[in-house]
Specification:
- This protein is an alpha/beta fold and 484 residues long.
- Helix content is 51%, strand content 12%.
- It folds into two domains: 227 residues, Rossmann fold (3-Layer(aba) Sandwich), CATH 3.40.50.300; 233 residues, P-loop containing nucleotide triphosphate hydrolases (Rossmann fold, 3-Layer(aba) Sandwich).
- It is elongated and about 85 Å long.
């Protein structure tokens, strides 16, 4: 692919300035329009060493209002649980532009060069990231900046000859130039396999004026085309029939109980195991995520509080999820959760989670039907990506019968220090029990995967539920550490 690119393209300085001035004025107008229409934009730059990514990013930013864009060095930190972390947490809000000096496919380029092939999981994860943002009306522009071996060699020599710039050249840059043909072949393979769902734009950069102009023209053209489409038109219309099966709940024994003596014994037993396993998670730098969903008054808070006793609070954190803020609403729905994911060695508990997309947002009409129907596949891909990157991920649904829920609601009304736990919203949700029941059944059926299954916790007996959570967490962490 790259070997066939004509790198001799040139443009005069005079012609460049003439076209640039027109394009920059248009870019200023377009930036205002995407802000007005709330269209998020991702622009990612990939390319060969010394191809001029920094210079091109700078030229692109000059005419733009700096309040509406940010440029990110997307190198993942050692503590990040995945190479996609910098891209998730720096995804743009509606109307804003995120410019990345590397793409979410950077690891794939490196793996292709050094190993000769790229794992399907790695490619799928990055492509799913792009598709997910396209579904959320984000414009994604991907540039690959290409130069010849001779031009790369000339630029490397020029940088090395100047003591003010020689620091910019490292061994990998020189190595790439020596093995230029191998790298170009590897890069071509990745470009072909990742040309969808958003196509690559190859920028011929031996002549910097040509490169600058092509980047400006491309951005202007793609912004113009995106603005012609109505907002919420990026995702394809999705026809997904609702599932009526309730197989995951048909055999649940809600009468399961645990006596006081047995509860104390089991609680202590698994608590001691968790304390030891928590130290091992930290020592081996294994991140863990626990997701708690369930009916109101099902016992999520009590289970989480008991669980927290056995972990070092410096490496344990609970993330309570409420209605999204204005800032969070302006981002992709997974954005606020990706920012709360743990670093290596830590454990984060989500008290409610991204499953709100297919529960409360679905039932209350806070998102379009296409959005929640598409979310099942998006969530599965998101979770599988975490697991493939070493995260211990567990999901708990706390089940409670309507009769027990009503008893607990009334109890909260009667006990002064529990009054705060009951709200008008709890009563409204209870009235919609059949609708939420269908949503829960479908959620569990569509998102209980082999890698990340749901654990249904019988919650009518709080003691039984708390021990089951401790036991499950202990078992899964122990098994994961054995696999390392």
């Amino acid at each position: 692919m790259l070997h066939k690119i004509d790198l001799s393209k040139k443009i005069s300085r005079q012609d460049y300035k003439k076209e640039r001035d027109v394009l920059e004025l248009e870019l200023i107008k377009l930036q205002r329009r995407i802000l007005d229409q709330g269209i998020p934009v991702i622009i990612a730059f990939e390319g060969l060493s010394t191809a001029g990514k920094g210079m091109l990013i700078n030229e692109l930013c000059i005419p733009m209002d700096p309040r509406g864009y940010r440029v990110f060095d997307s190198i993942s930190r050692e503590s990040d649980i995945t190479a996609l972390t910098p891209f998730w947490i720096n995804s743009p809000a509606k109307g804003f532009v995120s410019i990345f000096d590397k793409s979410c496919f950077r690891t794939a380029f490196e793996e292709s060069f050094h190993k000769g092939e790229v794992s399907k999981e790695l490619l799928d994860n990055a492509k799913n990231f792009v598709q997910h943002h396209l579904n959320s009306d984000t414009l994604v522009i991907k540039f690959f900046i290409h130069i010849s071996q001779q031009e790369q060699s000339r630029r490397l020599q020029k940088l090395c000859a100047d003591k003010d710039t020689e620091w910019r050249v490292n061994r990998s840059d020189l190595f790439q130039n020596v093995h230029y043909d191998k790298y170009v072949a590897a890069a071509s393979s990745v470009l072909v396999s990742t040309n969808s769902p958003s196509p690559w734009v190859i920028v011929e950069a031996d002549d910097e004026y040509h490169a600058r102009l092509k980047v400006l023209k491309t951005v202007v053209k793609q912004l113009q085309e995106r603005l012609k489409k109505p907002v919420n038109s990026s995702g394809n219309s999705l026809q997904l029939a609702s599932m009526k099966t309730k197989s995951h709940f048909q055999n649940i024994d809600m009468s399961a109980t645990l006596g006081k003596a047995d509860y104390k014994k089991e609680f202590k037993k698994y608590g001691e195991k968790l304390r030891s396993l928590g130290h091992k998670l930290f020592k081996q730098k294994v991140p863990a995520v626990l997701v708690f969903e369930g009916w109101d008054a099902a016992g999520k808070g009590g289970a989480i509080r008991r669980l927290s006793r056995f972990f070092d609070p410096r490496n344990f954190r609970v993330c309570p999820i409420a209605a999204p803020s204005t800032i969070e609403k302006n981002h992709n729905y997974l954005w606020r959760f990706s920012r709360e994911l743990p670093i290596k060695g830590d454990l984060v508990v989500f008290d409610r989670s991204w499953y709100g997309r297919v529960l409360v947002e679905r039932v209350e009409g806070y998102c379009r039907p296409d959005d929640w129907k598409r979310a099942y596949a998006e969530i599965n891909a998101f979770e599988e990506h975490l697991v493939e990157n070493g995260v211990v991920l567990m999901k708990f649904w706390l089940e409670v019968s309507p009769e027990e829920q009503l008893r607990r609601f009334n109890q909260r009304l009667e006990i002064p220090h529990k009054n705060w736990k009951i709200t008008d919203e709890d009563w409204r949700n209870r009235e919609k029990w059949p609708v939420y029941r269908d949503a829960v059944d479908e959620m569990v059926c569509r998102t209980s995967t082999e890698k990340v299954p749901w654990t249904i916790v019988e919650g009518d007996c709080k003691q039984f539920a708390r021990v089951k959570v401790l036991k499950t967490v202990s078992k899964v962490i122990k098994q994961r550490l054995k696999e390392l």
